[in-house]
Amino acid sequence: MKRQKSFQNNNSTLYLVPTPIGNLQEMTPRALDVLKQVDVIAAEDTRNTKKLCMAYQIQKPLISHHEHNQATSIPEILILLEQGKQVAVVSDAGYPLVSDPGQRLVKEAIENDFNVVSLSGANAATNALVASGLSTEHYLFYGFLDNKSSRRKKQLDELKDFPYTMIFYEAPHRIEDMLQDCLEVLGNRNIVLARELTKVYEEYIRGTIEEVLEIVSSLKGEMVVLIEGKRQETKIFDMKAALKQVQALVDEGMKTKEAIKRVAQEMNGSKNELYEAYHKQS
């Protein structure tokens, strides 16, 4: 067991700092403070992060840390932490690690007893979810589906029975093929396509998969696709049939109270209503 008291030890800290998904004004004061205070910023793309730093007058060394250089960048970052340096990790937009590299780095930082601290900030999936109009009670974030149709369909087939709102990321050049596969595997469900979130061209497109497919080829920008979960079939409680079943169990020797309880559970009905109806007919 490892127990991290983030601000009550002298260990070096790896900060996971969310960056704006479009609108630069969505940098939080705390995120800015951390970027100004750390010794080094590890960035998915140093060119993009340099623009962010310039906008907020942040002057810190930038090192490259992305999916294709982790074998060299992770040891470099761990050495910095070992030296007592504080390091911030940023992606091009939103949270590091959410559909972006960083999981291996976090795991190794934890294994080496460094603090790992995440900050609050912009997240495209959450932004899209709360404004979608679909259920927010339970949801499943999946991220990017496979870019190959056969594997994508297999993934969707594994998800088709989930009753929760499903959230995917998708690129504009793949969105039409992705939705065609969704239509084939999931059926013509209600969806929301959110694009260019927090930017001047932000748009929410709400409709069925078939309706959205009619216009999707003309759309640009990074996209969040939300698809309603499998609808649960609601059985209508048949009071007449339930009363007959209760009576049959009572005739077999079961106590009335137990018979009513069992039938209500089996037929998805109200125990109190069934109790009242049974005794009213007596």
UniProtKB/TrEMBL annotation:
This is Ribosomal RNA small subunit methyltransferase I. Residues 13-212 form the Tetrapyrrole methylase domain. It is an enzyme of class 2 (transferase). It comes from Faecalicoccus pleomorphus. It holds the Pfam family TP_methylase. PANTHER family: RIBOSOMAL RNA SMALL SUBUNIT METHYLTRANSFERASE I. Belongs to the methyltransferase superfamily. RsmI family. One of its GO terms (cellular component) is cytoplasm.
